[in-house]
Design a protein that fits this description.
This protein is of the alpha+beta class and 94 residues long. It has one helix spanning 2-52, and strands spanning 56-61, 64-70, 74-80, 85-91. The chain has a four-stranded antiparallel beta sheet, covered by helices on one side. Strand 1 and strand 2 (64-70) form a beta hairpin. The radius of gyration is 22 Å and the shape is elongated.
Length: 94
């Protein structure tokens, strides 16, 4: 009986300590994925701007909307991160 209670207590202890870590990893990896997608959108938007001269708009990737705006100085992308709104800008080379 003592051995079974030890296994149960060991399981509970490790389950409760690893869940916050796993949650952190899921959020962190999803944020990295969305940042990567924002870079892809920025690349596609820059190509569209050269061909169609479109300065504002949006693209959806995996059910996340990435809004963009191109000025004479930069390309900016706005999107929802896992915990906050994200804003990413890259200066245009002249």
């Amino acid at each position: 009986m003592a051995r079974n209670s030890f296994i149960f207590e060991y399981h509970i202890y490790h389950t409760t300590t690893i869940l916050p870590f796993l949650n952190y990893m899921v959020v962190h990896l999803e944020d990295k994925k969305r940042d990567y997608h924002s870079s892809l959108v920025m690349y596609e938007v820059s190509k569209m701007y050269i061909v169609e001269n479109m300065k504002t708009g949006g693209m959806q990737v995996n059910k996340i909307m990435y809004s963009y705006e191109i000025s004479s100085e930069s390309i900016c992308i706005d999107y929802d991160g896992m915990q906050e709104k994200k804003h990413k800008c890259v200066s245009l080379i002249k």
